[in-house]
Design a protein that fits this description.
alpha/beta, 59% helix, 494 residues, 4-stranded antiparallel beta sheet, elongated, 10 strands, 6-stranded mixed beta sheet
């Protein structure tokens, strides 16, 4: 009978705890995914994974057997005190005073322990994050023979974590020792009551043990509460205007932006980009091209000035509506560990196989996909590691085409392709740009000659603007960049 009841209790509480952990993980993941981009720019991936996966584990001690044991210990100790009070109220009153002291010291000890547990979560997340970066960038690590340096960095983090754990273990041991001293004192006081002292002693030891686990659980939940208190993009969208039909008529009005206070990256940027036109951004590295693109994608918000889309301030338009109208191809394209078809469908999950193959043909993916044994069902590996840079870029282009966006952003979209492949894909991209508002950052200036306007940026400012022919005739910064690149390309064939 006892075995059956024990099994049933463990099943009920165990399943309830795991269900609660799962729900908490789902809630935290959903919240994290909707946080603004700038939060991800300043937070390691490992920290976020720890918040979602590890910190939620603390619920087990709050919902599962830990809480039951704590409650049971408190009830048993309370009943024992009532019995002892009945037998000898004077000695029991003294015992209650001792227990009060015990409770106060325990509360103080766990208040001091909680920050230790919180720091442990942070240290564990940092170590996990660095390890994840090392493994993800293992090719770079090996290329620069940095294995020893990474070993040192990991060891340093692991030792910090060890010192934190050792500190917690020492504190917990001290609490246990103090519990034994108090129980011994109660035993002396209640010597006249004899063996009945054990009625109080046993549950007190249990309470001290379980309270440590619950204190650690609360530390993890504190970290979850911190991240859930951050405002998400969904919360901001409640105050914004619905825009289900974005056309893509842009106007930048005296836009300024900075990552760090008083260090402007964009300065007084103003231009128009009408529906269906292509705007190309040109400039040296660090001139502000990618930052301007991030403002177009609403990844960041202007510090001052206005970005107007279809006659409405972008800051007033719901991000979910706006971003559903955008297709992006970045220089560093991210692929998920799935099939080629799944990655192409990422922006349009319900697309048919024929639609996938059609856009793959436009992006010239079929040239290499057909050589794979599994074709479009080929697994690309984590971050697309099984494919070349050019192959990953073509898949990203096909993904953007399939999404059928009203606004197209191409950030060095063909930088990983050879000249012949780039020329072929440019034909497909030219067709794609028709009727769409397109923003292009191009390394090769020859690929943007057909742009409706070219903006030349330097130190965050637009220093020249016009068509390819107008800027060449102007004999300014654009012509200087174009001639320098032309000489470089010419020297490759000499």
């Amino acid at each position: 009978m006892q075995a059956a009841s024990s099994f049933s209790l463990s099943q009920v509480l165990g399943v309830a705890a795991q269900r609660a952990i799962t729900e908490m993980r789902k809630t935290v993941q959903q919240h994290v995914a909707r946080l603004p981009i700038n939060y991800f720019d300043s937070t390691k991936t490992g920290v976020l994974i720890s918040r979602v996966m590890s910190d939620a584990e603390g619920i087990r001690n709050l919902v599962g057997t830990g809480l039951v044991q704590l409650t049971g210990g408190l009830v048993t100790a309370s009943i024992a005190l009532c019995v002892l009070f009945y037998l000898n109220w004077r000695l029991t009153s003294i015992t209650i005073l001792i227990l009060g002291t015990f409770g106060g010291v325990m509360a103080f000890a766990f208040t001091r322990l909680r920050p230790v547990f919180r720091e442990r979560g942070k240290l564990r997340a940092d170590v996990t994050g660095r390890l994840g970066e090392t493994l993800s960038g293992i090719r770079v690590v090996k290329a620069y023979t940095a294995e020893r340096r990474e070993r040192y960095v990991f060891a340093k983090g692991a030792h910090k974590l060890f010192r934190n754990v050792a500190k917690a273990v020492t504190s917990i041991s001290g609490i246990s020792a103090f519990s034994i001293i108090i129980i011994g004192a109660i035993g002396v006081v209640l010597i006249q009551v004899g063996g009945r002292t054990g009625l109080v002693a046993s549950p007190l030891i249990q309470i001290a043990s379980i309270s440590t686990q619950i204190s650690e659980a609360f530390a993890g939940l504190d970290r979850i509460r911190e991240i859930r208190s951050m405002a998400t993009e969904d919360q901001e969208d409640h105050e914004r205007i619905a825009a289900p039909d974005v056309r893509g008529d842009f106007r930048f009005e005296d836009v300024w932006f900075e990552y760090d206070p008083d260090v402007p990256v964009l300065k007084s940027v103003s231009f128009d980009a009408s529906v269906g036109t292509t705007t190309a951004l040109v400039g040296s590295s660090g001139s502000g091209k990618s930052t301007l693109i991030s403002l177009v994608a609403a990844f960041n918000r202007a510090k001052s000035g206005r970005i107007v889309v279809d006659g409405r301030d972008l800051s007033e338009i719901r991000l979910r509506d706006y971003r559903s109208s955008i297709g992006i191809v970045l220089q560093e394209n991210f692929l998920f560990d799935g099939t080629i078809a799944e990655n192409i469908r990422f922006g349009a999950p319900r697309a048919t196989t024929d639609e996938v193959m059609e856009v793959a043909h436009i992006a010239h993916c079929d040239e290499f996909v057909n050589r794979f044994e599994d074709g479009y069902d080929t697994i690309v590996g984590e971050r697309g590691v099984k494919l070349s840079g050019g192959q990953r870029q073509r898949i990203a282009i096909a993904r953007a085409i399939l999404a059928n966006p009203r606004i197209l952003i191409l950030d060095e979209a063909t930088s990983s392709l050879d000249s012949e492949s780039e020329a072929q894909i440019q034909d497909g991209l030219s067709t794609l740009r028709e009727g769409r508002t397109t923003f292009v950052i191009a390394h090769r200036l020859s690929t943007i000659q057909s742009a409706d306007q070219i903006l030349v940026l330097e130190a965050g400012e637009i220093v020249e603007r016009g068509t390819h022919e107008e800027l060449l005739a102007h004999e300014g910064r654009y012509r200087e960049l174009y001639e320098r690149q032309y000489k470089i390309e010419l020297n490759r064939f000499i």
